[in-house]
Amino acid sequence: MGHTMTKQSWEWKKSEQEEFRLYLVSQERSENTVEKYLRDVRRFCAHIGKDTIGDIEREDVLCYKKWLLERYKTASVNSMLAALNCCFRFLKRDELCVQNCCVQRLFFAQEEREMSREEYFCLVREARRQGMEREAAILQTMASTGVRVSELPFITAEAVRELVEMYSEALSVLDANTVKYMVEQQQEEIERQRGELIQKKNEIDTLKKAQEQKDAMLARQENTITCQEEEIARLKAQLAAKENAEA
Questions:
Q1: Residue 163: which region, alpha, beta or left (left: phi > 0; alpha: psi -120 to 50)?
Q2: Do 90 and 3 form a contact (C-beta atoms < 8 A)?
Q3: Could you give the CA distance from residue 19 to residue 25 in angstroms, rounded to a whole number?
Q4: Is 52 helix (H, G, I), strand (E, B) or coil?
Q5: How many CB atoms are located within 10 Å of the residue 87 CB?
Q6: In this model, does residue 182 exceed pLDDT 80?
Q7: How many C-beta atoms lie closer than 10 Å to residue 24's C-beta?
Q8: Which domain holds residue 128?
Q9: For residue 9, what are the β-bridge partners?
């Protein structure tokens, strides 16, 4: 697709914007992406203050990149630079293209952004308390499957039925030995969990016994203190009686 923006006024004309728009559409960009690219390039045009595209130098773009980094997050800056680079390539000014900023990927969520098990159950309970069964189901689906929000529309009753049918068909062709092995694995897992439960109960019993011993020790100490206080009171009474007798 041809274009007439080169060497034309950098005050972006509507006809020139339309040419770039048609180019983006021909590249199968989404409607939202097209509008964003146009908006980002218009912002760049307003910022640089050059009269023609021929007057723009790479240093201008680098200064604009620095200006963006002082005001926006790195991911936002990269999205704006992508729009500019696309426009420069469209204008056959590839030498103006700049590299994206490095973004350190987080393979694990930051600890402060993680939701605890207690917080998750609290959310589900609160949703049900307010009669929001649909929201409670969404929370449970996301927590149990790990799907993204954008994937939720694909979790339908029909999809679940198809999945159940698929697993049912798979189970129907399993031989007896395979089924036996699966059952044994499940039984081993149950026994392992039961062993962990017994161990935890024993630990709790041990802690209870230790606490009972501490309580008994405290009771004995309190009893000893009471006896000592009684003995002191008795001695004081004897001393007072002796003093009265001598007087």
A1: alpha
A2: yes
A3: 10
A4: strand
A5: 24
A6: no
A7: 22
A8: 113-172
A9: 52
Cα 7–chain centre separation: 48
Q: Which residues are CB-neighbours of 47 under 8 A, at least 6 positions away? A: 64, 67
Shared-domain flag, residues 18 and 64: yes
DSSP string of 120-153, one letter each residue: HHHHHHHHHHTT-HHHHHHHHHHHHH---GGGGG
**Paired tokens of 116:** 């605890």
pLDDT in tens, 8-63: 334 556 777 788 889 899 888 888 889 999 988 888 888 887 656 667 788 988 99
Q: How far is CA 51 from CA 9, 17, 151, 197, in A?
A: 6, 16, 47, 77
pTM tops 0.85: no
Which pairs from 48-52 meet CB under 8 Å and 24+ separation?
Answer: 48/10, 50/10, 51/9, 51/10, 52/7, 52/8, 52/9, 52/10
Distance CA 120, CA 107 (A): 22
pLDDT at 110: 60
Overall number of domains in the chain = 2
Q: What angle do the packed helices 58-69 and 74-90 form, to 10 degrees?
A: 160
Match 């992508």 to its residue by tokens: 82
Residues 6+ apart with CB under 8 A from 157: none
Is there a domain that residue 146 lies in?
yes
**Co-location of 52 and 118 in the same domain:** no
Phi (first) and psi of residue 26, to 5 degrees:
-65, -25
139-167 residue pLDDT tens: 888 888 888 888 888 888 888 788 778 77
Amino acid found at 107: F
